[in-house]
Amino acid sequence: MPAFKIPFNGYSVKFSPFYENRLAVATAQNFGILGNGRVHVLSLPPSPGAPIVETAAYDTSDAVYDIAWSESHDSILVAAIADGSVKVYDTNLPPASNPLRSLQEHTREVHAVDYNPSRRDSFLTASWDDSIKLWTVDRPISVRTFKEHAYCVYAAAWNPRHADVFASASGDCTVRVWDVREPGSTMIIPAHDFEVLYTDWNKYDDCILATASVDKSIRVWDIRSFRVPITVLNGHNYAIRKVKFSPHRGSLMVSCSYDMTVCLWDYMVEDALVGRYDHHTEFTVGVDMSVLVEGLLASTGWDELVYVWQHGTDPRAP
Amino acid sequence: MPTQSADDDVKQDPVEETAQRDPGDAQTAGTENNYSNSSPSVFVSSEPMREEQVQNAVKFLSHPKVQGSPVIYRRSFLEKKGLTKEEIDEAFRRVSDSPPSAQTSTVTQEEGQLRSPANIPQQYPTQALQPAAAIPSGFMASVGPANRYGFRWYHALLAIGFLAGTGAGTLIFFKKAVIPRLRSWVRAVVLAEENGVSRETHLRPSLAEETAAAAKAAAAAAADIAKASEELLNSKLQEKKFLGEIMNLLNVQLCEIKSVGVAVKNLQGQANSYAPNPLSNCDFSASSTISKQPYSNGKRDWEYSSVGRSSIPQASLEPSAAPHPKSYMEIMAMVQRGERPPNVKDIDDSPPYPNQPISNPRINPRVKPWEVGQNQRSSNQVFPYQLNSGVQNNGSVSKSQGNKSGPWSQPANNLRITDLENEGEIKSGSQRTSSHEQSIKRSWVPPQPPHVAMPEAAEAIRRPKPTIPGERLPHEQKLSGPSDVTNNESAMTTKTDEANETANDNGVNTELNPSRMQEEGKSS
């Protein structure tokens, strides 16, 4: 299907866990440096060749860096805003009634938001104020704050099998594993020599996680022996912004990078790079794999385009 | 500081989990330690303290330069080196226990102030330190290793500098005094020879030539030494420059903070919606020198967190800076000058009805593919990696691997399978294998991939890497190990129960929590 043109620079894209044909896009004006932001809710067409349609859009005064769908409510999404607020939207409500909530606790930009896929009632926000906060949608204040990183926290990811465990990636070059029941982090993994921009858990092996870094490599770690990574995946030419494990195949990962490509990796295979898409003409900053449709990928970047395609096909095919 | 407020509902877990341990887990040989009572055990680093690391850390922390830095950066440095929390705490304890004999009173005072926060875990300095945080952290990181062996480095550098100086001196002496004399002597000898002198003049020129050659070689060697010493001096100078720059940056940061403070005071006088902008202008206007630097390819592995958006990840690329779009640079320049980009609008994005209740969800949550229990065993095409047991599974594994492009190029089939599983889970919690036979009407099917113009290219794109099925399994087993198998089995048996819970769920979250915690206890 054809690409969707967004007015601002794309930052993140997420498929809905309830509807196969729905996805949300977080965008920011002026590359997210200084400007407004917008959350788009898009609907994928039923027939090939038909365009992607926007079903809702919410304007924000500051850039939207990340977006997450609720796992409990089919119409609710949470946006991470650059002014430090976390906004909750409901697509069932008219635009005039949105946002539903604006939670202002972080003192700096909120860079990532992740919804708990097992417990379904809570979500995490990672911020440049070095902290991670745990929230539930029904509470006006955060449930907990996790402050240990020495620098910006770029991502937080829930473990798909252990509802209380999550990992965080930070600019202090470490990845920390936390348990919400413990007062502090339970593991500190010195993952890279440079900033770690993203981390994600393997959906089929709860002890494996992948980290993406400014050093152009993705490292896959087994937390049971975290001194040495299982594997180091090289292939990107610039910093890697996101890496996500496939919800359908245990060792498959997708990554997006400032080298404008989206790559697919299978870390169990000797030649790990199994796919490469260079459809973007600017930094690719957001990528997602659909949980409901196997092989469906979406990506967005600073070239103001959102692509949705099936793995193995050409994203630019109309 | 972490606020541990009102998370009682989450804290119920440990008690319930230990009470509900599944005895079936005990049978999974060799992995019991990994999946024992409390699920976080595998997520906690359980190594014993490494004495060598602790001693290195103690040496690091005892260094006077290190003690001048905030505690959080010392901790961060040690964490980056791979020390666990216990090792870091032990090192801090040891350094505070041993009497600081080599330190001045001011240093001990500072240390005492900083030590008390360090002794209490998880308490870190607040954002007051963060504006100046980034630069010292990078500085500490880069100079850290050097500081450990500080004395030796300094001694070595001094010695090399001294040698370089003497070498340079001798070289200059050679150049200025000795060689011209040699040359003139050689020339005189040669001239004398030309005037028709006999063998002894032959000898002398050769001697003279040899000595000249030797002198030249010595001079060349001395020149090399001088070059090397020059380079060392240059690097020293560079480092000094570095330090100077850092000091400058710190000063600029201070000025910036002051200006921000002033701006905030100004803002309090203003009462209009343009409030955020003067603040950000002040942020950026004072940072012109800092923000320009991220785009150079110099040694830059830190960010300037108080400089607003210029501290985005791409600003700190040590390996190589990705080329930014031209308009990005323009906007950065504009923002640094304090201008607001023209296309930015004032938007009020506050919630119109902040107390609006959250509506109930319309549909039930869908089961995740990795949560699907025994369906995985039978749905071979979709989950080839899960299958480590069972004859039918091996057969279908090879089949799906032989046709690697199968799952990807036939989305409709997979969709049906996936959806059948999901629908089956939701509708009939207890039924498992029969869900395949149901044909469900999908609400949305992604469009078929377009007709392929070049089948060879499409095949090349699709085929990840041709590997023999036989090869694949050993790789899997080697990497994932027996724990993966047992994990799957235990996860499968228990996740079906969890799926049952999900199926019975009516979408009310609070009800789900206690039962889900029980399931988590079983599955771990």
UniProtKB/TrEMBL annotation, chain A:
Gene Ontology cellular component terms for the protein in this record: cytosol; peroxisomal matrix
Keyword Cytoplasm assigned: yes
GO biological process, one term: protein import into peroxisome matrix
Transmembrane segments: none
Subcellular location: Cytoplasm, Cytosol; Peroxisome matrix
Sorted UniProt keywords: Cytoplasm, Peroxisome, Protein transport, Repeat, Transport, WD repeat
Pfam annotation, one family: WD40
Residue stretches making up the EIPR1-like beta-propeller domain: 152-265
Residue stretches of each WD repeat: 103-145, 146-188, 189-231, 233-266
Gene Ontology molecular function: peroxisome matrix targeting signal-2 binding
Highest taxon, organism lineage: Eukaryota
Gene3D superfamilies per record: YVTN repeat-like/Quinoprotein amine dehydrogenase
Keyword Transport among UniProt keywords: yes
Record-stated family: Belongs to the WD repeat peroxin-7 family.
Function (record text): Receptor required for the peroxisomal import of proteins containing a C-terminal PTS2-type peroxisomal targeting signal. Specifically binds to cargo proteins containing a PTS2 peroxisomal targeting signal in the cytosol. Cargo protein-binding triggers interaction with PEX5 and formation of a ternary complex composed of PEX5 and PEX7 along with PTS2-containing cargo proteins, which is tranlocated into peroxisomes by passing through the PEX13-PEX14 docking complex.
Protein name: Peroxin-7
Upper lineage: Eukaryota, Viridiplantae, Streptophyta, Embryophyta, Tracheophyta
TrEMBL record, chain B:
Compartment(s) where it occurs, according to its Swiss-Prot or TrEMBL record: Peroxisome membrane
Ranges for domain Peroxisome membrane anchor protein Pex14p N-terminal: 50-94
Keywords noted in UniProt: Membrane, Peroxisome, Protein transport, Translocation, Transmembrane, Transmembrane helix, Transport
Spans annotated as Disordered: 1-50, 93-118, 340-368, 386-451, 463-524
Domain Peroxisomal membrane protein PEX14 central plants: 151-267
Domain (Peroxisomal membrane protein PEX14-like KPWE) ranges: 323-371
Transmembrane residue ranges: 153-174
GO cellular component annotations of the record: peroxisomal importomer complex; peroxisomal membrane
UniProt GO MF annotations: signaling receptor binding
Compositional bias ranges of the Polar residues kind: 98-111, 386-416, 483-494, 501-516
UniProt-listed GO biological process terms: protein import into peroxisome matrix, docking
Mode of membrane association: Single-pass membrane protein
Subunit relationships: Interacts with PEX13; forming the PEX13-PEX14 docking complex. Interacts with PEX5 (via WxxxF/Y motifs).
Function: Component of the PEX13-PEX14 docking complex, a translocon channel that specifically mediates the import of peroxisomal cargo proteins bound to PEX5 receptor. The PEX13-PEX14 docking complex forms a large import pore which can be opened to a diameter of about 9 nm. Mechanistically, PEX5 receptor along with cargo proteins associates with the PEX14 subunit of the PEX13-PEX14 docking complex in the cytosol, leading to the insertion of the receptor into the organelle membrane with the concomitant translocation of the cargo into the peroxisome matrix.
Protein name stated in the entry: Peroxisomal membrane protein PEX14
Species whose genome carries this gene: Trapa incisa
